[in-house]
Write a structure and sequence with these properties.
Structural class: alpha+beta
CATH class of the largest domain: Mainly Beta
Strand content: 15-25%
Largest sheet: 6 strands, antiparallel
Helix content: 40-55%
Number of strands: 10
Shape: globular
Radius of gyration: 22 Å
Distance between the termini: 63 Å
CATH topology of the largest domain: Jelly Rolls
């Protein structure tokens, strides 16, 4: 009646699908949460009971389960419920919370100060797009760097919205200077440029520039205007294009050399970026393939 499936897992975050087919009734037996978890609903509703209080969870809001908390669940309809469970590593969660509540460092056993938060239409759609891509990972190769950045940023915005709803978002703590941010960004660019063919992770890049993964991803996008995973993909694709123009003829070998998992993954990513396939670049003049040819 209640099933769980891990959709994605890394040292930074895990994302799981749950599907509850329990019909109207409850509350059920008491449950215990052993970590700080955040749930974004996909279908249905349930009621969470804790102490003398209860809240109704629906697709219109995010739901928070604090570490070491106990609760009971009931259902007021026969539709059941389904959602996505996000578990961030304690260090990543603390990095995000610190931006919203600097006193988190004084509380090693942090618990969420709210049970629910808003889920606006942007968060709803980004959640659904993330889940769809994770569910299709068997047929559409998944980039770990993309998954980490996308999931962590989504949950950072979910937490910010929840704090804002409570009127509890203080002035953001400054994490270094503009010069420091620029220096970290340039160091990250240098690091990635030298590792185009490697499977680098968000943790790898952030560690190389002495930053936490969450803060680094935020700083990099602020400085460059693009997410770090997008920047690295562009480096790889443009390097691949140059090799094709210079006569590279083994597309599978080129795909692996550029850090892609397969010929098909490389070809589809290349086509989305340039509007043509690697084979077309190899077989026709580059000027004919350009999305914006020079006149």
């Amino acid at each position: 009646m209640l099933t769980f499936k891990v959709l994605y897992e890394s040292p930074l975050i895990s994302v799981s699908d749950y599907n509850c087919r329990i019909l109207r009734g409850g509350p059920q037996a008491e449950e215990y949460n052993n970590s700080n978890s955040i749930v974004l609903m996909r279908h249905g509703a349930f009621c969470k009971h804790f102490g003398s209080r209860s809240v109704t969870a629906t697709v219109n809001q995010s739901v928070f389960f604090s570490k070491d908390s106990t609760y009971q669940v009931s259902h007021t309809a026969d539709c059941g419920d389904r959602g996505t469970i996000f578990n961030l590593s304690p260090r990543i969660l603390k990095d995000i919370i610190r931006e919203l509540d600097p006193t988190v460092d004084d509380r090693p056993d942090y618990k969420f100060p709210f049970v629910t938060g808003p889920c606006d239409i942007d968060i709803f759609w980004r959640h659904r797009e993330l889940v769809t891509k994770l569910e299709n990972a068997d047929t559409e190769p998944l980039e770990t760097l993309w998954a980490d950045v996308t999931a962590i940023q989504l949950i950072a915005e979910v937490l910010e919205a929840a704090y804002a709803q409570r009127g509890a978002v203080p002035k953001r703590r400054r994490d270094g200077t503009k010069a420091d941010h620029a220096e970290k960004t340039e160091a990250a660019k240098n690091y990635m440029a030298g590792r185009i063919s490697e499977r680098v992770t968000l943790d790898d890049i952030a560690g190389a520039v002495y930053s936490s993964p969450f803060n680094f991803a935020r700083i990099f996008q602020q400085q460059t205007g693009v997410p770090v995973h997008r920047y690295l993909t562009q480096l790889r694709l443009r390097a691949a294009l140059e090799k094709l123009v210079d006569g590279a003829d083994d597309i599978t070998a080129l795909a692996l050399e550029m850090g892609f998992s397969s010929h098909s993954h490389f070809t589809e990513t290349f086509r989305r970026e340039f509007g043509c396939t690697p084979s077309e670049v190899r077989n026709k003049p580059l000027r004919e393939m350009s999305k914006n040819p020079i006149v």
